[in-house]
Structure to design on (669 residues):
């Protein structure tokens, strides 16, 4: 004893034990910091404890605020009337709100991280997602054969992520179907009485005993009833075209024969004696519905004849290239002002309401052309320069083209006509 | 195997390959669902055009099967998948065969629907086909859902419905025999109807097969030719053991 080293060693040992105890208490508190009060310790340990507990309190505060913000967000999106699904770049479900779960039959516990196309397997929807073009919305049932109709609208954001908005549009689409049905039925019902009227008017017009002062009015009545017949048959054709969205497959059409026939028909009916030029630059034919394509092409040719003054030239051109097949009708008429071009294919749209009426069209021709082309996956383009003339062109995809031999072999409707001509 | 396990792969490309081919299977499933719905509706509504469309479009199903098959062979050859991934690929190869057969049955229904459309329709307007069709459509839908979610419990629930379809099939068969005895002139038509009912019953069987692959995929257990109740009991026992092992 008395050795100074022993004293120092003893003091160090006590200090070590104290530190170890503090360290143990600190560790114990850190593990259970949410339930226990911080331990009482003096000196450096005390500082450490108060620092850590301050940091902890601050973190707790932020966490609470974030959590309440998140809950608020979730509550607000849950009360949204539309369904929302967030998808990552692989089209896997990242998050969805309550309405989306209800509309699409998604399950909160299992469906995160699953590809949405795996659960919503309606082929049109898979195609919509795969295409990745969200400029338009899509209307499909949530599952094959379901009576409800949902409207999907993708909103891309970030790097390939997509917000998918879902709305129940069952009622709207039912109303739309009702409207279409109504137009079709009304047109159909109007046709029978009109046939009777036209019939009597025709007989009257041929009657020699008819007083001269009635000839004018009866002639006008005949013209108007003919116009009504055209409008009604065009309306019926449009509703038939609108009935399904499906593309037509059709049969091979001998386009060269069809155009030759169109020119002959035009020369026969044309009162204004236009020069009609036929420029056939490809012998290939087209896959499509023969009746529809004929009606579309005839509408374009007929329009050109109506609006081109006597002595003008109408050019029909058919050519093929890497982009597919193209048919264009060019006239030397008055042309159309630029502002009218986008609305030209709307029903009953008139560039000049006063003037156009006496041309005798139904106002539905271009709408029919557009629908026919849509059914063939094609496109209608209109170019026009005021005062110089217009070009209406139809464009078909390369897949729609068939070789001359195939078209001629399958489509023999025109060969007789051509033989006669030769 | 959980879906989240898939994301633990070292090779992200491999993972993407697997997910893509799984997506393709479900796209094919969606198309088959549509074919089935169209075929049943063509039959019930007497729509010959729709029936012909279904029969014509079957080539799409075949095309998808070939392309998925090739993709699976490529994954097997280049990635050498093991365990859960291997089971996924095996299950996919089997599932697409079943889907393709379903497509063939739909084609058959389409043909018969187109042929029957021109004939006089029975008074009950094929009500039994409509009903059986709905049950089978739901089965196919739920089986594919279970496949998408990798949910073996849902799969077993669907597999159990197959018995319902079989019973319905038996009932319609008995009814048809009565019809044929009452009115021999209707035999031709009733035989066609029997073909349709038979095709629907087969589609139900294929849907059940897909459910079995889901259980195989998740638990690595082959449950073909085993009673469903036994399977359920065993799976429950296994779950309990796992829980005890953890506790």
């Amino acid at each position: 004893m008395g050795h100074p080293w022993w004293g120092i060693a003893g003091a160090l040992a006590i200090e070590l034990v104290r530190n170890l105890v503090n360290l143990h208490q600190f560790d114990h508190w850190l593990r259970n910091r949410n339930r226990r009060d911080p331990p009482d310790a003096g000196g450096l340990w005390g500082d450490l404890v108060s620092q850590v507990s301050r940091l902890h309190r601050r973190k707790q505060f932020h966490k609470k605020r974030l959590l309440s913000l998140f809950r608020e967000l979730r509550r607000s999106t849950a009360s949204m009337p539309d369904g929302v699904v967030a998808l990552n770049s692989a089209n896997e479900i990242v998050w969805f709100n309550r309405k989306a779960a209800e509309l699409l039959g998604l399950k909160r516990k299992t469906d995160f991280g699953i590809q949405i196309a795996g659960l919503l397997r309606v082929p049109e929807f898979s195609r919509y997602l795969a295409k990745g073009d969200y400029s338009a919305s899509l209307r499909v049932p949530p599952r094959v054969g379901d009576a409800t109709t949902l409207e999907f609208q993708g909103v891309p954001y970030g790097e390939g992520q997509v917000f998918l908005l879902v709305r129940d549009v069952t009622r709207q689409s039912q109303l739309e179907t009702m409207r279409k049905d109504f137009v079709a039925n009304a047109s159909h019902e109007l046709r029978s009485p009109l046939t009777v009227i036209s019939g009597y008017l025709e007989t009257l017009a041929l009657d020699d005993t008819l007083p001269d002062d009635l000839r004018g009015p009866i002639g006008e009545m005949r013209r108007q009833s003919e116009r009504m017949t055209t409008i009604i048959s065009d309306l019926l054709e449009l509703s038939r075209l609108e009935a399904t969205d499906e593309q037509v497959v059709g049969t091979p059409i001998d386009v060269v024969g069809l155009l030759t026939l169109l020119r002959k028909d035009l020369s026969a009916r044309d009162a204004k004696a236009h020069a009609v030029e036929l420029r056939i630059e490809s012998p290939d034919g087209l896959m499509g519905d023969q009746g529809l394509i004929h009606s579309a092409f005839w509408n374009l040719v007929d329009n050109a004849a109506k609006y081109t003054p006597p002595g003008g030239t109408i050019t029909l051109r058919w050519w093929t290239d890497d982009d597919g097949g193209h048919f264009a009708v060019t006239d030397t008429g008055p042309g159309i002002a630029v502002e009218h071009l986008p609305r030209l294919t709307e029903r009953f749209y008139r560039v000049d309401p006063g003037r156009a009426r006496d041309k005798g069209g139904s106002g539905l021709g271009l709408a029919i052309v557009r629908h026919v082309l849509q059914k063939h996956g094609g496109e209608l383009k209109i170019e026009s320069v005021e005062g110089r003339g217009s070009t209406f062109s139809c464009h078909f995809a390369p897949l729609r083209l068939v070789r001359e031999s195939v078209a001629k072999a399958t489509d023999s409707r025109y060969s007789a006509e051509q033989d006669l001509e030769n | 195997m959980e879906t989240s396990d898939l994301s633990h792969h070292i090779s992200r490309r491999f993972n993407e390959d697997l997910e893509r081919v799984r997506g393709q299977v479900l796209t094919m499933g969606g198309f088959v669902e549509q074919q089935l719905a169209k075929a049943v509706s063509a039959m019930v509504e007497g729509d010959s055009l729709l029936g012909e469309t279904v029969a014509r479009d079957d080539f799409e199903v075949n095309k998808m099967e070939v392309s998925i098959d090739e993709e699976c062979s490529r994954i097997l050859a280049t990635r050498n998948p093991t365990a859960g991934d291997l089971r996924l690929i095996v299950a996919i190869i089997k599932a697409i065969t079943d889907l393709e057969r379903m497509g063939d049955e739909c084609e058959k229904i389409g043909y018969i629907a187109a042929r029957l459309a021109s004939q006089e329709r029975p008074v009950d307007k094929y009500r039994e086909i409509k009903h059986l069709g709905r049950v089978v459509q739901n089965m196919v839908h739920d089986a594919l859902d279970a496949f998408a979610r990798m949910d073996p419990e849902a799969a077993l629930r669907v597999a159990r419905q197959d018995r319902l379809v079989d019973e319905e099939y038996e009932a319609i068969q008995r009814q048809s025999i009565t019809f044929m005895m009452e009115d021999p002139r209707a035999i031709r038509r009733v035989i066609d109807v029997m073909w349709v009912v038979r095709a629907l019953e087969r589609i139900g069987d294929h849907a059940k097969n897909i459910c079995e692959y889901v259980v195989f995929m998740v638990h690595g257990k082959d449950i073909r030719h085993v009673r469903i109740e036994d399977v359920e009991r065993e799976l429950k026992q296994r779950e309990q053991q796992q829980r005890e092992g953890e506790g």
In short: Residues 174-242 of chain A form one domain. Chain A has a mean pLDDT of 85. Chain A has 13 helices and 13 strands.
